Amino acid sequence: MKPAIPVYDICSLSMGKDQQDLLIERLNHYLQNNYQKAIHQHGHSFYHLVLFTKGSGSHTLDFTKFSVQPYQVYFMIPGQVHNWHFSPDTDGYVIHFSETFFRSFLMHHDYLERFPFFSGDSKDQVLTVPLPAREEVKALFEKLVAEMETPQFDMIRVLMLQLFLLIERTSVREKKKAIPQQKLLVLRNFQQLINKHYRTIKLPKEYAELLYITPNHLNALCQDLLGKTAGELIRERILLEAKRMLTNADLTVTQIAYELNFQDNSYFNRFFKKYAGITPDDFRKSLNN
């Protein structure tokens, strides 16, 4: 049987360095040691981000393919699946950090979730740094690389937070103009609840109860801000997890249906084909093409 999709931790990618919570390197050096691992679908147990400064190729994040461009930056959260194919001249910077790296540093443990690029939604995780901000962004990466020589971790945390705030301010596509902050907060809370409970809570009305609003209010808010119903957002998250699990050849379709709390295998197959356009088995076969 084909082996299960690998899920790497930071130690497995640090080439002998005793790195459990943090890795910061120039991308060309990182690729020399890890390119063969990265060309195949794999997952991470940590947060991961890359800034490209030159080169070409493509990378796939949760089954959405992106072309590499200079000063593109992409982010991943633990549990996502990706792979890449880059030209030999590709360069930039790569940062890995564990889920616990900021935990003792920040009062709000969910602080990173405020950034759209840490949402786990691939369309918000790949950004192009605009020209006026490029030198400042690159300078922060250079400081982070230099700081790793004799790491003072609180300084690294401060620089990383500065980088996240700068990218949010300059690079996040503005889709929320003139929208009250309260609406955005409810939507983000809904998305976070879906990420936590998609296996067991399937109905918009159940999420509305957790948010102390009516189902109609929740649905109207999703339609207004995203052009989708609350039910669509829930189904998209379930479908995404099904795709991730299907990359693991050690899991049968029946096991995946059970893990996602479908009534039976045939119901899961109908759900997947309706929203993905192909059967789970055909999707699994397509990963090898």
Automatic annotation (TrEMBL):
Residues 188-286 form the HTH araC/xylS-type domain. Keywords: DNA-binding, Transcription, Transcription regulation. This is AraC-type DNA-binding protein. It comes from the Bacteria. PANTHER family: ARAC-FAMILY TRANSCRIPTIONAL REGULATOR, TRANSCRIPTIONAL REGULATORY PROTEIN. One of its GO terms (molecular function) is sequence-specific DNA binding.
